[in-house]
């Protein structure tokens, strides 16, 4: 005899408190309920919109003035969004006009902060200022010196190698819009690379992911990034050889 199990005691129901993933959404016959089906389609539309969103250059340039640092407006070799999606290699390099902007900076610095649209400019527009408000005071208090902040259109993670190297920074920190998911189209990733230079690959970097109000909060992300940067300078390396042991130290 088939029993009707109350919805409240379904095994996965309690897990909804801890995740925005689509679990325990129920069913109607062999399909999912109409509301959940429409929510899924809406989330998919938000993810597609995020991929084609654009950096709010004027807004970001204006709010970053609060950090008393020059702001550079740069561009990768990509000329349009379809090319960005089809030619990832073009998004990893600056165009000639942007490279020429960096020639005016001759003084070696500690950290170059790079803001790039990546696969969600929406995430960058909404979250990078809040994160930097938490992070920059921590870095300043520790005595780090900054290169100009770089705002990069049509950029990918590795473009930080070009910029960090040309700005003569010992470390590059790239804040970039992550690939949108069906529950998070506004997630920022932070990638740090010690001794950046053209030609490095992903094992040379450390990543802090899912930075957004409903994910890893600005304050927690800032503390984690600060720890990794401090360790990178202490050990003069980054990437697979640099482990995030902050939790072990705190415990």
Overall description:
This protein is α/β, with parallel strands linked by helices and 251 residues long. It has one domain (57-250): Rossmann fold, CATH 3.40.50. The chain is 35% helix and 16% strand. The chain has eight helices and six strands, in the order ααβααβαβαβββαα. α5 (121-141) packs across α7. The protein is globular.
Q: How is the secondary structure organized here?
A:
Blueprint: H1 34-51, H2 57-63, E1 71-75, H3 81-86, H4 96-101, E2 109-116, H5 121-141, E3 149-153, H6 159-166, E4 169-177, E5 188-194, E6 205-211, H7 218-235, H8 246-250
Parallel strand pairs: 1-3, 2-3, 2-4
Antiparallel strand pairs: 4-5, 5-6
Helix pairs in contact: 5-7
- Uncertain residue ranges: 1-9
Order of helices and strands: HHEHHEHEHEEEHH
**Fraction in beta strands:** 15-25%
Mean pLDDT: 88
Measured between the Cα atoms of the first and last residue, the distance is 52 Å
What strand order characterises the main sheet? 1-3-2-4-5-6
């Amino acid at each position: 005899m088939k029993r009707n199990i109350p919805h409240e005691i379904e095994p996965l129901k309690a897990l909804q408190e801890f995740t925005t993933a689509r679990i325990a959404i129920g069913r109607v016959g062999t399909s999912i309920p109409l509301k959940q089906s429409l929510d899924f389609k809406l989330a998919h539309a938000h993810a597609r919109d995020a991929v084609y969103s654009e950096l709010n250059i004027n807004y970001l340039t204006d709010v970053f003035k609060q950090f008393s640092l020059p702001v550079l407006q740069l561009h990768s070799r990509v000329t349009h969004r379809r090319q960005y999606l089809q030619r990832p290699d073009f998004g990893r390099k600056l165009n000639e006009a942007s490279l020429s902007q960096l020639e005016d900076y001759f003084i070696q610095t500690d950290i170059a902060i790079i803001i790039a649209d990546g696969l969600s400019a929406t995430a960058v527009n909404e979250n990078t200022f809040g994160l930097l408000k938490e992070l920059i005071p921590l870095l300043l208090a520790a005595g780090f010196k900054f290169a100009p902040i770089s705002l990069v259109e049509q950029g990918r993670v590795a473009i930080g190698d070009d910029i960090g190297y040309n700005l003569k920074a010992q470390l590059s920190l790239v804040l970039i819009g992550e690939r949108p998911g069906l529950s998070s189209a506004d997630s920022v990733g932070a990638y740090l690379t010690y001794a950046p230079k053209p030609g490095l690959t992903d094992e040379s970097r450390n990543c802090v992911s899912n930075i957004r109000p409903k994910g890893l909060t600005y304050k927690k992300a800032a503390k984690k990034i600060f720890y990794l940067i401090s360790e990178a300078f202490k050990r003069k390396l980054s990437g697979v050889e640099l482990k995030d042991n902050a939790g072990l130290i705190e415990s």
